[in-house]
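call fold(seq) -> C-alpha cells
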Amino acid sequence: MSSEKKKSILPPILLEESELILEKEEFLLNCQREEERILARQFVGIVCEEEDLSHMILSGVKFKGCRFWNCSFRFGDFQDVVFENCDLSGCDFGDGHMERVSIHSCKGVGAKFTGMVLKNLLLAECNFDDGNFDASRLEQVQVERTRIHNGNLTGCICRQVSWRETDLKNASFFKTSLRGMDFSDSEITGIVVSDDNRELSGVIVDLYQAAELAKKMGIVIKDV
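ret:
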C-alpha cells in the first residue's frame, strides 16, 4: 500500500437474498435487448454462451452458480453486484464500470477487463489465469487467494490496491507502477516490467523476492 491512509473497500449493498427477485436467463437477455436496467434481482444457475450482454446496467444484483462462456459485457455498468461460484471464462467486460462488486470463488480464465474503472472491487479465491486488465483504473481493489498466471495488468492506474496470497506468476505489469504495493505473501516469479524496472520503485517484497528481483536489475548478491 502507499503512504496514503488506507481505506477498507466498500462491499456491495444488496437486499437480503430472500428478498431478491429470482429470474431466469430469458429475463437477462430481454433486459439487454430492451436496454432496461436490472435492479434487485438474483440469477441462480443460469447458462449463457457467446451472448451479447453489452451496455447492461445492473444494481443490487447477485449471480450465483452461473455460467457465462465467452459472453460480451462490454460497456456495462455494475454497481452493488455479486458473482459467487460463477464461470466467467472468456467473457469481455471491457470499457465498463464496476463499483462495489464482489467476485468470489469464480473462474474467469481469459476474461477481459480492459479499459475499465474498477472501484471497491473484491476478487477472492478465483482463477483468472490469462486475465487481461490492461489500461484500467483500479481504485480500492483487494485481490486475495487468487490465481492470475500470465495475466496482463499493463498501463494501469492504481490507487490503494492490495494483494493477499495471490499467485501472479509471469504476470505483466509493464508501465504500471507498483509503488506501495505489498507482495510479500504473494507469488511474483517471472513478472514482466520495463527494461529499466521503473515499475518496481517503492514495491514491498520479502527477502527472497528481493533477491529474485535483484537479478532482473543485474545485481549479484554475494553469499556471506
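The CA atoms of residues 7 and 222 lie 40 Å apart.
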